Amino acid sequence: MSVQVWTYIIVGITFALYIGIAIWSRAGSTKDFYVAGGGVSPLANGMATAADWMSAASFISMAGIISFTGYDGSVYLMGWTGGYVLLALLLAPYLRKFGKFTVPDFIGDRYYSDTARIVAVVCALLVSFTYVAGQMRGVGVVFSRFLEVDINTGVIIGMIIVLFYAVLGGMKGITYTQVAQYCVLIFAFMVPAIFISIQMTGNPIPQLGMGDTLNDGSGVYLLEKLNGLSTELGFNEYTEGSKDRIDILAITLALMVGTAGLPHVIVRFFTVKKVKDARKSAGLALLLIAVLYTTAPAVAVFARVNLIETVSDKSYEGMPEWFKNWEKTGLLTFEDKNQDGKVQYVADPQINELKVDPDIMVLANPEIANLPAWVIALVAAGCLAAALSTAAGLLLVISASVSHDLIKKIFMPTISDKGELLAARLSAVVAVCVAGYFGINPPGFVAAVVALAFGLAAASLFPAIILGIFYKRMNKEGAVSGMVVGILLMLFYMAKFKLGWLGDTPPASEWWFGISPEGFGSVAMVVNFIVSLTVCRFTAAPPQEVQEIVENIRIPSGSPEVLSNH
Amino acid sequence: MNQNISAQKYWRINLKYLSILLFIWFLCSFGLGVFFVDALNNFKIGGFPLGFWFAQQGSIYIFVVLIFTYVFLMNRLDKRFGFED
Lengths: 566, 85
Fold this sequence. Notes:
The structure holds 2 protein chains of 2 kinds.
Chain A: H1 3-24, H2 30-35, H3 42-53, H4 56-69, H5 74-98, H6 103-110, H7 114-146, H8 151-201, H9 206-209, H10 222-232, H11 245-261, H12 263-266, H13 275-311, H14 321-329, E1 332-334, E2 354-356, H15 360-368, H16 373-411, H17 417-440, H18 446-470, H19 476-499, H20 520-537, H21 544-553
Antiparallel strand pairs in A: 1-2
Helix pairs in contact in A: 1-8, 1-16, 3-8, 3-13, 3-16, 4-13, 4-15, 4-16, 5-11, 5-13, 6-7, 7-8, 7-16, 7-17, 7-18, 7-19, 8-13, 8-16, 8-17, 10-13, 11-18, 11-20, 13-15, 15-16, 16-17, 18-19, 18-20, 19-20
Chain B: H1 2-35, H2 37-40, E1 44-45, E2 48-49, H3 50-81
Antiparallel strand pairs in B: 1-2
Helix pairs in contact in B: 1-3
């Protein structure tokens, strides 16, 4: 059977599964819709968090980026896992004890102010929308390559599926589909990795295979061979970095703190029963994420070696079928500059004839390694699972921010539970349509902005939450001014150095402290902390009852059921 | 009042655990994976330069262990103070 038939079968089965789960776990109340009734087991929540968290970026892009940047790609590995330590130790247990529905809920109540609540809603929406547009685009790319439908049709199919289970099931539906999606995506990622690891090194565990000797009996280590190939072609040694250490540090920190500040990740910890479960499920989530994150660098090495060996200095006529297929999508281009009919793949841009988009490495990897058709189809299904699960989680945050934080808490406090549920469903529909619009008509800056969503989260929400828990005297004036200054500073830096909205984009040599826009979230976060603490010193302490709330969330016992009628 | 004093004591011990674990977190990721990576790359385990291994593998394993250590320590502490929920 061809790859396409296999893809239809496997993707069809997984989609039917997600829809079945959604029907089985419909939401009946706002409590179901926002926090899945508050009774999710730590393991199910860990799996759902892992799927929620691992997006198309983790599944497709990350290994590809590492493949082309070697050591420098470590920022993503450490950054996107290290954040869970912060989440488990500094945020999850206390926010669970607090027992509300959303992040702006916490900020609004802790800082006894609707201004703080609205600022937090704006930050949460900004972060979530930039993030979700990229997911819909990922869905479109997979559909167009493997099912040979138009990218736009792909986006619309994705929208309908997400709409169906997010609107019907709310957090409850999303949680249990995400459990299924975790299984699909991790299986889809591991199978080809294990196959290729055995092929190249004889070691069935990719994490070890990456550091093992080659299968050809030469006794040469795989990484040594890759370093050799890389220097031969004029690239940096794979295991050495080329970025400034200060920038590596800043990016890693921004990704870690951003991860801990992402509303769609934090909200997952409102769904478990107890404080104890919140801690445990953060650990389980990271364990499940680590399975993919420790395999990704191995996939990166395998793919890079395979790519170089297949194309470098080989005749263009003799290129395998996958090469031609990806050429059609425009994500891989070949230009025979010296007219010798061979592919010159080197570091020097003057001579280099091959351009490969990092995004295709994971998708093309099984084809490059000549794996059977069903494995390739499985990878497509895995990628869809990753993109859809993240998109659904983000859409829920968006709809909860609108229906709960704005409509219920600010504009219509008397709205009934039923009315609020309807509002939540309607805002989910609107959010899916907006996300789909951006997926079909991606503004040029979407791809660039997804990475920066972390900077925005780090610069705005993280400090306000941390100070709210660990500094009893923190008041609303401090928190609001910190969030506003932090997010504006980050937006300004993005606009100036990444998006070029304020005249020409200045060269990297003009970056402040040598820190790239991706890493600038760290600086903006520090500024947020400083502004918050300074303003707080010169304004009145928070009222006694707020200080009591803080004392109360520090102790696990007596955590309320997440209230459905507050 | 008694409840209050034990709550403060509980919080102080929690903060002590946090600082120790976050120190290790910082050391493994930013220390071994970024600052000292060149020095560590002079050592090899199997085919891995050690610094590179910490940056792409080791730090992640350590993160997982850190969280479960915290879960264990806090569950014990909750029990000691009778703060389980």
